[in-house]
């Protein structure tokens, strides 16, 4: 079999499937190759995000939050429920149903847009040719005018905690527990560790997170990071910073973890389950023939320029497999940009305005520069913060923890960043991202009419606070930084 396409996409995660759909919409003959199999051994689209990442984890986060509310929060509303229990297998079945529905949606979109869906593996050869191997082992060579590499990422493995998919699991295995572990250890207190840890903590696990970094959420605005840690600790998460795991030993269905704490002292702790969440790395195994012409950088990412073009003419790469944050929405926008560039358009991705979210409860979300980054870059700025405790909707909903922080240029008042921990933070920060895309000032946001009572009023008040004009909290004297 030999077939010629305008575009071949390898990988159907958020970067790949979006690139394929957009290319097809632009009239380009497009095929998309995906190696993922579901639990029934059938090929499915969606990649890590849909199958074992963003979507299933949010399904479990939602289930665990509902259980937590019924178990501990309803009484304050005058709601009696009796003895509340969690049926973990049913929860997992629901999660699987969500995944199946969403992956089926991508297949329907491929069909509607006339994208050829190919299940199996793809390897880039020289001259924009792709070696396609289906699930039965049949191999053929496909040709294309353009190839888009969107092979994604996989969890980083560490020798001191080898995954056995039983007692020691990675982020994928943590979505498949058949019961709530009494003692749960998590190596890594980053986004994935916090989300998975909070799921099982709300369901009853005693959760300990061992984080090697001494600063919590070190890449986020530290004022918001400190507020987040305070909230997580209050919820029962035991977050231990400056802890380096040096060994693990499985005994009688338990795992003993040895680690060095922040004082340099050796400690041991036993868990029923251990989740390894120390990050992700680009997945390029079997993707590139030696003569493909595509180069990797020193960290194993496919080297691309600002337009996601590789060293090989007509070959592009997008998503987790290239530089930048490993975020589904970042990969999707790169996929759109590449498809449109192939079609002759001049699309760009604004990498300065990419929201980042931690889907704990409350959520943590950010966009733009942190205060630490502005200080390091020598940019003069003003800062305004506003707590949800002064927002009527938040208090009425028992969602009053957290705050909004707005950063604006001290001379132009242009919004440079917004950082939120609190209810609906992911949606609130998106409104600021939209405003930033149009070069808004803090004054612009402060002059905008916001509905009352809403969570979003905290955004308006934080914008007003930037210039000392907050209405519903006393203003601190402002000084330029």
From TrEMBL:
Residues 5-335 form the FAD/NAD(P)-binding domain. InterPro entries: Class-I_Pyr_Nuc-Dis_Oxidored, FAD/NAD-bd_sf, FAD/NAD-binding_dom, FAD/NAD-linked_Rdtase_dimer_sf, Lipoamide_DH, Pyr_nuc-diS_OxRdtase, Pyr_nucl-diS_OxRdtase_dimer, Pyr_OxRdtase_I_AS. PROSITE patterns: PYRIDINE_REDOX_1. It is found in: Cytoplasm. It catalyses: N(6)-[(R)-dihydrolipoyl]-L-lysyl-[protein] + NAD(+) = N(6)-[(R)-lipoyl]-L-lysyl-[protein] + NADH + H(+). Its EC number is 1.8.1.4. The active site is a redox-active disulfide bond. This is Dihydrolipoyl dehydrogenase. The lineage of its organism: Bacteria, Pseudomonadati, Pseudomonadota, Gammaproteobacteria, Cellvibrionales. The gene is lpdA.
């Amino acid at each position: 079999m030999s077939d010629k396409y305008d575009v071949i996409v390898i990988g159907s995660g958020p970067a790949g499937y979006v690139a394929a759909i957009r290319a097809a919409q632009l009239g380009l003959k497009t095929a998309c190759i995906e190696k993922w199999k579901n639990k029934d051994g059938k090929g499915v689209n969606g990649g890590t995000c849909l199958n074992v990442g963003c979507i299933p984890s949010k399904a479990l986060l939602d289930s665990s939050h509902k259980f937590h509310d019924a178990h501990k929060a309803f009484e304050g509303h005058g709601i009696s429920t009796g003895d509340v229990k969690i049926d973990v297998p049913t929860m997992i079945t629901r999660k699987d149903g969500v995944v199946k529905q969403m992956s089926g949606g991508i297949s329907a979109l491929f069909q509607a847009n006339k994208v050829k869906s190919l299940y199996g593996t793809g390897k880039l050869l020289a001259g924009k040719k792709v070696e396609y191997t289906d699930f039965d082992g049949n191999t053929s060579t496909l040709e294309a005018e353009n190839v888009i590499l969107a092979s994604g990422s996989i969890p980083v493995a560490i020798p001191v905690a080898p995954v056995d998919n039983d007692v020691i699991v990675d982020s994928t295995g943590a979505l498949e527990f058949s019961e709530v572990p009494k003692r749960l250890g998590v190596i890594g207190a980053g986004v994935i560790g916090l989300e998975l840890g909070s799921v099982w903590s709300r369901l009853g696990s005693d959760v300990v997170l061992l984080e090697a970094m001494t600063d919590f959420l070190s890449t986020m605005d530290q004022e918001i990071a400190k507020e987040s840690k305070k909230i997580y600790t209050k919820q029962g998460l035991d977050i231990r910073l400056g802890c380096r795991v040096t060994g693990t030993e499985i005994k009688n269905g338990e795992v003993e973890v040895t680690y060095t704490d922040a004082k340099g002292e050796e400690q041991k702790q036993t868990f029923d389950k251990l989740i390894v969440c120390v990050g992700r790395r680009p997945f390029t195994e079997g993707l590139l023939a030696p003569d493909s012409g595509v180069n990797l950088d020193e960290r194993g990412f496919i080297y691309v320029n600002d337009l996601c073009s590789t060293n090989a003419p007509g070959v592009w790469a997008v998503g987790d497999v290239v530089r930048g944050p490993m975020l589904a929405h970042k990969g999707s926008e790169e996929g759109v940009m590449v498809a449109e560039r192939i079609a002759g358009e001049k699309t760009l991705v604004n990498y300065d305005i990419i929201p980042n979210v931690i889907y704990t409860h409350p959520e943590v979300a950010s966009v733009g520069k942190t205060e630490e980054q502005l200080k390091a870059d020598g940019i003069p700025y003003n800062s305004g913060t506003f707590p949800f405790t002064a927002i009527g909707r938040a208090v009425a909903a028992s969602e009053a923890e957290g705050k909004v922080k707005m950063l604006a240029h001290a001379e132009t008042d242009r919004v440079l960043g917004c950082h939120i921990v609190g209810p609906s933070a992911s949606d609130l920060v998106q409104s600021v991202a939209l405003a930033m895309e149009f070069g808004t000032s803090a004054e612009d946001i402060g002059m905008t009419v916001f509905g009352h009572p809403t969570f979003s009023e905290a955004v308006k008040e934080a914008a007003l606070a930037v210039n000392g004009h907050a209405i519903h909290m006393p203003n601190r004297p402002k000084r330029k930084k």
